[in-house]
Amino acid sequence: MRDLFDGDIVDQRDVQLAPGAMLLAGFARPLEASLIEAVNAIIARAPFRHLVTPGGHRMSVAMTNCGRVGWVSDRTGYRYDPIDPVGGHPWPQMPVV
Prior knowledge:
single chain, 97 residues
């Protein structure tokens, strides 16, 4: 069985998805280890969590945030918030990779 992430499977051509939107196949491959390290650092400070909708339903997707503001949802509504409501501190900085 071939590995989905094996380099010879990925089409290395750039593909235009729509005006101004490109798929850059394999573009991040040289940064793979740095990207994984950066994501793990974000998760350590702001772990994945299942948010709750304003109607009280638990979302099926688990998410985290980083940067100046993060998207959150709870019984009071949907919003972008500079503070992690679970940790009570600002979201981790957007990593430079």
